[in-house]
Specification:
CATH topology of chain B: Immunoglobulin-like
Distance between the termini of chain A: 36 Å
Radius of gyration of chain B: 29 Å
Order of helices and strands of chain A: HEEEEEEEE
Structural class of chain B: alpha+beta
Oligomer: heterodimer
Strand content of chain A: 35-45%
Radius of gyration of chain A: 17 Å
CATH class of chain B: Mainly Beta
Largest sheet of chain B: 5 strands, antiparallel
Helix content of chain B: 10-25%
CATH architecture of chain A: Sandwich
Number of strands of chain A: 8
Helix content of chain A: under 10%
Strand content of chain B: 35-45%
CATH topology of chain A: Immunoglobulin-like
CATH class of chain A: Mainly Beta
Number of helices of chain A: 1
Number of domains of chain A: 1
Largest sheet of chain A: 4 strands, antiparallel
Order of helices and strands of chain B: HEEEEEHEEEE
CATH superfamily of chain A: Immunoglobulins
C-alpha cells in the first residue's frame, strides 16, 4: 500500500463522513403499465446525517428540464435509509432524457457555517 | 450387535455427508456496480480575519470544507464542485459581496489521482475533475467573501453552500 493508501485508510477510519448515493449509474427506460408512459426505476441511499430531503430532476443533454411524474418530487429519506423510486415519462420524451439527478435539500437550521449541497446524476444512454 | 453397530455407523456417515453438503451450500454473492458517492467529510467554517471579510482559510481562522468522492468503476463519472457565490443565510446586506474560491485535490487513495489537479477545468465558480480512476478522492474547497469597499460586514449569522456534483459520463 502506498503512503496515500495508508492516509486514505486512516482518514476513512477516523472521520465520520456522510454520503449520498444514487444508483444505477446507467438506468434503463422501460414500458410501464400505463399506455404511452415509460418508467425508470432508481434507488437512493442516504448516508448523510445532515440531510434527509432530496429533490428529483430529469434533464435532457443540454440540461433543460424534462417533465416527469413521480410519487414525490422531493424524497424524504432518513439517515441510512434506502429508497426505490420510479420516474414516469411520456413516451415522446424518453428519447430526450439524458440525466436523472437527486440533489440534497438541507433545512436552514441544519446548515452550519458552510453547508455542502450534493447532487448525483445518472445517465440514460 | 454387529448389525446394529453397522446401521448406526451408516446413519452417522450419511448425517456427516449431509452436514458437509449443507456447509458447502451457503454461498455469499456480491456485485460491484458503477457507483458514485459524495461524502461530506469536513464541514467548513468561516473565519472573520478583517471586519469586511469571511474566509475558510486556516490562516484566517476558518476551516475549509472537504468533500470525498468515491467511485467504484473508473472513468464513469465527472466531479463538478462549485464554491459559494451567495449566502444562504445572512443579515440584510446593503452593498455587493465579492466572492472568490478555489477547489483543490487534498488527498487520494490511488497514486495516479494526483494528476487530477493538473487536469482540472475551472470556469466561473465551478471546477470540474474527470474521475478517471476508481477509488476515493478528497477535495478541499476554499471560500472567501469580501464586503463592499471599506465597509464592515453587519453582525449576524452567515452561511453559504458548496455544491458538489457527480455526473455520469
Amino acid at each position: 500500500m502506498t503512503k496515500y493508501g495508508y492516509a486514505a485508510a486512516l482518514t476513512l477510519f477516523f472521520n465520520s463522513a456522510a454520503a449520498h448515493e444514487l444508483t444505477p449509474t446507467y438506468p434503463e427506460v422501460k414500458p410501464s403499465y400505463i399506455d404511452g408512459v415509460s418508467i425508470i426505476n432508481m434507488k437512493m441511499w442516504n448516508r448523510r446525517n445532515d440531510a434527509k430531503y432530496y429533490e428529483i430532476n430529469v434533464y435532457d443533454k443540454e440540461w433543460n428540464d424534462i417533465p416527469f411524474a413521480s410519487t414525490e418530487k422531493i424524497l424524504k429519506i432518513d439517515y441510512l435509509e434506502h429508497k426505490n423510486f420510479h420516474i414516469y415519462l411520456r413516451d415522446e420524451d424518453t428519447a430526450m432524457v439524458t440525466y436523472i439527478c437527486t440533489t440534497s435539500k438541507q433545512l436552514k437550521q441544519d446548515v452550519q457555517s458552510t453547508g455542502i449541497k450534493s447532487r448525483i446524476c445518472s445517465r440514460v444512454k | 450387535m454387529f448389525k446394529q453397530t453397522l446401521t448406526l455407523g451408516a446413519i452417522s456417515v450419511v448425517c456427516s455427508v449431509a452436514a458437509i453438503a449443507q456447509a458447502n451450500n451457503t454461498p455469499i454473492t456480491g456485485n460491484v456496480s458503477s457507483k458514485c458517492s459524495i461524502f461530506t467529510d469536513t464541514i467548513g467554517v468561516y473565519g472573520n480575519p478583517t471586519p469586511d471579510e469571511l474566509s475558510t482559510k486556516t490562516a484566517d481562522g476558518g476551516i475549509d470544507p472537504v468533500i470525498r468522492y468515491d467511485v467504484t468503476v473508473a472513468d464513469k463519472y465527472k466531479a463538478k464542485i462549485s464554491w459559494p457565490n451567495s449566502f444562504s443565510t445572512s443579515p440584510s446586506l446593503s452593498d455587493a459581496v465579492n466572492w472568490d474560491g478555489e477547489t483543490t485535490v487534498k488527498s487520494h487513495s490511488v497514486t495516479g489521482m494526483s494528476a487530477y489537479e493538473a487536469a482540472k477545468v475551472e470556469y466561473e465558480n465551478v471546477t470540474e475533475f474527470d474521475l478517471t480512476l476508481a477509488g476515493s478522492t478528497w477535495f478541499s474547497v476554499e471560500s472567501e467573501a469580501t464586503y463592499g469597499v471599506g465597509k464592515s460586514l453587519p453582525g449576524g449569522e452567515y452561511k453559504a453552500n458548496v455544491v458538489a456534483e457527480c455526473i455520469a459520463d
